Amino acid sequence: MSKSQNTRRTFLAGAAATIATPSLALEAGFRSGEETRRNTSSFQMIDWQDHFPTLGVATIICDTTSRALHYWNADGSDYRLYPTSVPMTEELTRRGYTEIVRKTEAPSWTPTASMRERDPTLPVRMEGGEPGNPLGTHAMYLDWPAYLIHGTHDTRKIGRRSSSGCIGLYNEKIAELYAITPVGTQVRLI
């Protein structure tokens, strides 16, 4: 056997093993009854026309099931899809129609009374830019009190049920969305 045949066989055997390994590991996890945890969203396509009669100044639909935020600009020429964090429980999840009423860079954070009740160690207030501020770098406030679309420094939260009611995005993605989203943007949480 020549050296080139041996190298080719070794390469093909290694490639086959590499391709098969994730499938075998996944199958083994299902057979043993273990749930595979993922920190990514299984996005579902959404049509804004199923939710709004017009695009208005812009449109956002937050899908809490697929953990994704869909954005369209006023003429529909710019569509963007972002992975998000969503509320931890159904009790904390609010659904319906709202709009962006205010935007802030380096937002300060004041935990709600129910947040402090769940976790008494939370600070009374945290200024924008402080390490650990859960609102990240940018926030867009909805016309529902204490509900926001905001960034997060804790990237493990994206793709998970991890918030106290808000919709969270990676800081670089909320900065991008913040820049293109005008106050008055119509929002629906489904």
Structure notes:
There is one protein chain. A hairpin with a 5-residue loop joins strand 2 and strand 3. The strands form 2 sheets. This protein has an 8-stranded mixed sheet with strand order 3-2-1-10-5-6-7-9, covered by helices on one side. It is about 25% helix and about 25% strand. The radius of gyration is 22 Å and the shape is globular. The protein has about 190 residues and is of the alpha/beta class.
Tags for this entry?
alpha/beta, 8-stranded mixed beta sheet, 3 helices, 10 strands, 24% helix
Brief summary:
The chain is globular and about 45 Å long.
Describe the secondary-structure layout:
Blueprint: H1 3-31, E1 58-63, E2 68-73, E3 79-83, E4 86-87, E5 96-105, H2 113-118, E6 138-142, E7 148-152, E8 161-163, E9 167-170, H3 171-180, E10 186-189
Parallel strand pairs: 1-10, 4-8, 7-9
Antiparallel strand pairs: 1-2, 2-3, 5-6, 5-10, 6-7
